[in-house]
C-alpha cells in the first residue's frame, strides 16, 4: 500500500513479486527511514495455515514507525496484508519438519527529496520466502564473539526498534565475528560496556542450575535491546513448565564466571528465524570460555521442542498465539 501525507493509505493490492520502481532521490536510500518485521506462517496438522503472534509484530512495527517519524499502519491493516499474502502463497507454505513461510513486512520512505526531514510518502509492503529448517542436520551450538569495539545502539538512539540503520551498523561487527571463526556477535550495553544485551538478530537466555529447579535469566529490556517476541513467548512457556524466569542485568564477567564455576549450565539465543540456538563457545577480548560442555543443554532443547510444538500446532494453542489464515 502507498501513503501520502494528507491522503492517508491507498492502493492496497496483491501483486506478483518484481522490481520496485523508485527515484534516485528516494529518502529511504539516503537516510534509512525504513523499518521492518519478521514472522512466520506454519502449516498446521489439519491442513490450515497459521501465523504466530502477528499482533505482537504489528505492535512492534507501530513502535518502530513512531520512532522513525513514519505513519502508523493500523493493526487490522497490518494483519490483513500478512493474511492476504499467506493466503495467496498457501501452496508455498512448506509442510516438512520445522519448515515455514518467512514473512517480511516493511515500510520505507518513498518520497524523492534531499533535505533531512520525515518524508511525506511511504510504501508498506509484505514479501514472503519459504524457509527450510534452520538446522537441517540437527541442532548444534553456535559460537559467539563479544564485540567490545561496537555497540548496537546508544540509549536514546534506535536500538530497541527494528529499523534498517541498526542492521547496517551490525554488519561490520558480524564480519569481525566471522573473521574470528564465530557464528554470531554478542553486544554489550553502550554506556558501561559491561552488560550483555543480545545477538545481532536474537535475544539471549542463561540457565542457572539443572533439572526441575533450573532457572532462566535473560537481560532486562534496556531501551537498546530488541524486545523479541520469541523471548517473550519463551518466558511464558518456561514459567508454565515450572521454571523461574528473571529479567535482570547480566554482566559479561558474570556469564564467564558462571560458565567457569558451573552455576550457568546452558546459554541459548532465540528469535523468529532460528527459534532457539544453543550457545557453546564464547570468545571475548577479556577471555574465552565454554558454556557447560559446549553442547546443547537439556532445558534449551526442551524449550525449543515446546515452542516448535505450539507453532506447528502439535499441541493445543492454550494461549491464543496462533492466528489462523483464511
Ligand atoms: N534481536 C534482534 C536484534 C533481532 O533482529 C531479532 C529478530 N527480530 C530478535 C532479537 C528476536 O526477535 P523475535 O523473537 O521477535 O524474532
General description of the model:
The structure is a single chain. This protein folds into two domains: 130 residues, 2-Layer Sandwich (D-amino Acid Aminotransferase, Chain A, domain 1); 170 residues, D-amino Acid Aminotransferase, Chain A, domain 2 (Alpha-Beta Barrel), CATH 3.20.10. It is built from seven helices and 17 strands. The strands form two sheets. Strands 8, 9, 10, 11, 12, 13, 14, 15 and 16 form a nine-stranded mixed β-sheet that branches. Strands 1, 2, 3, 4, 5, 6, 7 and 17 form an eight-stranded antiparallel β-sheet that branches. The site of 4'-deoxy-4'-aminopyridoxal-5'-phosphate has 12 residues, from helix 5.
Kindly report the name of the CATH homologous superfamily of the largest domain. D-amino Acid Aminotransferase, subunit A, domain 2
Content of β-strand: 25-35%
Stated plainly, the CATH topology of the largest domain is called D-amino Acid Aminotransferase, Chain A, domain 2
End-to-end distance: 20 Å
Number of strands: 17
CATH architecture of the largest domain: Alpha-Beta Barrel
Uncertain runs: none
Please summarize the sheet with the most strands: 9 strands, mixed
Q: Tell me the domain tally.
A: 2
Helix and strand content put the structural class at alpha+beta
Order of helices and strands: EEHEEEHHEEEHEEEEHEHEEEHE
Kindly report the average pLDDT value: 96
Described by its quaternary structure, the protein is: single chain
Helix share bin: 25-40%
Helix tally equals: 7
* General form: globular
